[in-house]
Fold these 2 entries.
Entry 1:
Amino acid sequence: MVIEHPEPIRAANHASYNEEKMGKSTLFESSRVLVGLNAFEAGQEHKLHAHAGMDKIYQVIEGNGVLLREDGEDELEEGMTVVVPEGVPHGIRNPGDGRLLVLAILAPGPSAA
Amino acid sequence: MVIEHPEPIRAANHASYNEEKMGKSTLFESSRVLVGLNAFEAGQEHKLHAHAGMDKIYQVIEGNGVLLREDGEDELEEGMTVVVPEGVPHGIRNPGDGRLLVLAILAPGPSAA
């Protein structure tokens, strides 16, 4: 589905859920930024990882989950925002019964590396 | 209110509404990205403008409004996402009776210019 930026979209219409593992889709990519979606079926997880030189922003679009940090976990509810500065370990788990969809923005875009 | 990133936050708790003009607040800033909030009281507008060399992402946190484009307008509803590639004119108007809060992400951050 091609998006004619800057048209307003419902991110959920562009989600790519995958029974095998967390699904990814891309809304926009440039050298400056990657705007994507991470789609978690119940029980799926994106384990703890870090991005050198890239800041990340998560925005929970639908569902609830858990933010994984190096030293603990936080509840992640629909509508919440998370800023992950470069180099800081982070991950997401969907322990619930329903789906979890998260907007994931990386700056700069990985293609700039 | 200091945010200990990467703690999950409710962006609305960090909004800065201003009776005089659109209110701005900053959630995070680096050379790579600026994560801020644009808070519109009823009737307020951020008129058409563009950012050379910076991509922008809007995420509507609460309320409804109108996305201004060079050649028209689009409805902007709670939960919607907009990607504005660098150089593309854009703005936001809150024509409604209620407040409108929009997460506004710029990459790279203006401080990198």
Entry 2:
Amino acid sequence: MDQKNCDTIIADYERIFHPQKLAIVGVSEEGTGFGSGMFNALQAMGFEGEIFPVNPKGGEFSGTDIYRQIEDIPVRLDFAIICVTAKAVPDVLEACRKNGAAGAEILSAGFSELGTAEGIELEKKIRQIAAKGIRVVGPNCFGIYCPRSRLTLLPGPDLSRRSGPVAFLSQSGGMAIDFAHKGKWMGIGFSKVVSFGNGADLRETELLRYLARDPETRIITMYIEGIKDGDSFFREIKAASYSKPVIVCKGGLSPAGQRMVVSHTASMGGSRVIWQSVLTQVNAIQVQDLEELVEASLAFSLLPEKVFKAISVVGGGGALGVTACDAAEAFGIEIPPLSADLQTRIGELLPKPGSSALNPIDVANPFVSPKVLKEILRNTAQDDRIDLQIIISLLYHYKTIARALGKPVAEVAPYRELAETIRDVMKETGKPIVVVLANPKRGVDDLDIIEMLALARREFLDRGLPVFDELHEAIRAIGHVNSYYGRRKAENE
Amino acid sequence: MDQKNCDTIIADYERIFHPQKLAIVGVSEEGTGFGSGMFNALQAMGFEGEIFPVNPKGGEFSGTDIYRQIEDIPVRLDFAIICVTAKAVPDVLEACRKNGAAGAEILSAGFSELGTAEGIELEKKIRQIAAKGIRVVGPNCFGIYCPRSRLTLLPGPDLSRRSGPVAFLSQSGGMAIDFAHKGKWMGIGFSKVVSFGNGADLRETELLRYLARDPETRIITMYIEGIKDGDSFFREIKAASYSKPVIVCKGGLSPAGQRMVVSHTASMGGSRVIWQSVLTQVNAIQVQDLEELVEASLAFSLLPEKVFKAISVVGGGGALGVTACDAAEAFGIEIPPLSADLQTRIGELLPKPGSSALNPIDVANPFVSPKVLKEILRNTAQDDRIDLQIIISLLYHYKTIARALGKPVAEVAPYRELAETIRDVMKETGKPIVVVLANPKRGVDDLDIIEMLALARREFLDRGLPVFDELHEAIRAIGHVNSYYGRRKAENE
């Protein structure tokens, strides 16, 4: 495509993701249905553009006049959210196109996913209208979430308002909303989330091409089932992955899962082995499920762009040394024993007995103060081989002390001090630190621990420290960062 | 061993796990140290036997006179908990033996794990005393947890008082206490948990032989690093697994992890591949980490002893159909599409649009009532191929309704009704039902959801329904049940 075309396309995407004039078609005065829900959700999110609700019956909703049809709206729209019955969609979409809207998301279901002749025909009409000059997300999707413009997914009035570097593309609306919710407390900031459903117009390949060029997006993630054109899809991943990581969760890799991928388009089949091999060739990061996707996104969001060959682990808990080494080895990471000199210095800081200064450094006692932990981390960082440190925090143990003092555990556990301490060491040493917030106690008697740890997680994240629930999850996520930058470096050499 | 010997051994174990007369050596009047902690923990747990605290300084602790030495105790002890410095241990142990105690647990560290000549010599002395006629757990361990007698692990005053079918053997004390805590809210009842540390006397093989015969234990689980005698160990697993499942988490399977296994005894090395192959031969269930161990234990605890070839999945959430089929296929389980007749009947119960009655059954709307879910589950069970049902509960969505009503979500979400409903269907149909309690929201704003789900989990567990956090975890656990009973059946044929 030539430069002019390219500029127009980028400008169109800008109008789609950050609309100033937005129509919602299917807002009823009674407030029922998806359209009204979206209106409310956008207001709750603090959407600052102008919203034009539309319904043939007219009336008023939430203090705003409802237009009877798109044709009555006196301005050029940037974007439209369409939530009317499937049959009514083509006419509405055509009206949006004539208005000059850059794009529309169609939340309505009832198209090719039904497998009926009528549904397939309706979707074909959408594709034809799109081809005449309006970009379409959907149908049968949850739409776009963009924290900067406050566009939100169906039904999300409670998604984070904070932008970040992670974009997510998903055929499945459920995956999109689940990732958006998990990301909120796990510390993932999103640039754009697009649930594209049936993908009648915009889908994986074209959106990927856009995200590769999008300065707001530093990490591209996706959940895909079927793809439309394997060759161009993998070409786009390869092109994108020269400049930013592309994390892929592929659903339907089992024969049974494959059969479930109701594939209205010419979808690429292929076994697990083929997918894995092709994704590796294009330097995509492969994850098995949403949890691994969120964890990998967190690591790519907060860690420097490099390979972490060797790490230290400081903490405690069940079989720390063996568990850490098993996990690290599985992902090609070393946990080198520290020099005798460092072991002596760290050993002097550790409580006796039961501690170990070898690496993993087992502090043995969960009440070792942030001050002492700081000294341990500072010393460990002096080993030139160590690229990154993991600290396993056993803050949940403070409930014992809180109980003895008759105070809430959130008051007693020194999580803020710990977060500050770790951030200080990270700055001073220039080596990233990853936090594991262990908690074996999650029953009704221990909700206070859960609350304290949720607060602690926020303090860590606010200081740029990634937090994981389990050590092996942290190590797996670091392993993904290593694979990606290792391969990218090899390609560039 | 002959019958008489065998009876004596069983009687000794009875005195060890359910002691009536118990000494704690190392209880100080000031209340510091492990001994005093154990005294308090046993009282908190409601230990009903008689406790004899011991300390050379004498005095009084918590209203009980402290004996200056074991020799002064006027009764025959069943068991002793020893928490004195390593050097003092042999004399104390010998005094316990002379008293006639059946066994002792040595919580003290400072033995062969140090790798020093002195530590190795001290442990040798312990072994020699044990050989003269007292069974020893430890040293360098967290001891025994037995809910029926209320013996508890270091430092566990807050472990469950409820007995159950699961026994756990662990070299690592940290793993033992973590499993005990996780088990408490995950619904695992324990018969006996033994953290045996350095295993100077009692360790994996002999304890396994005992547990295989223990009527209180229906499921044997273990975390092991090094083993002392591979041949007899695997022979005992094979013998035990004819009558009960043996679940093994082997730490140190990586070369680095293996190096961490500080192996004071002749420990069996061997790669991952060798271990996996041998464990499969003896029909042990292999798990990778503590989470998988807890989940497998839960499935074996609550599911009938059989193979579940085909299952149904009822629920919703991101990409349900594809995700469920991918997970099921990975563990050799089928999710067969229901007959057209059943699909029609179930389809009539489901909200439109977006639902699917195929299997997985996607209810599309999270607010489908327990009554309707009951009818769906009853219909699904009519398919003769279905051996087990999984229901994915999306109770967390009720926060939206709770907010609209201005009520707490724990009041609004119908979790008790749902638990009763599911239990009723299970009874009526004779097919087990497994619950997945999904929750993508775990931030500081959603602690009320976490609380509601913790309450819900308890209601499900109280009715014998296993609960998992994620669908793939539930399916993996069912897969373990299938592998075990499948192989056992094949062996018996």
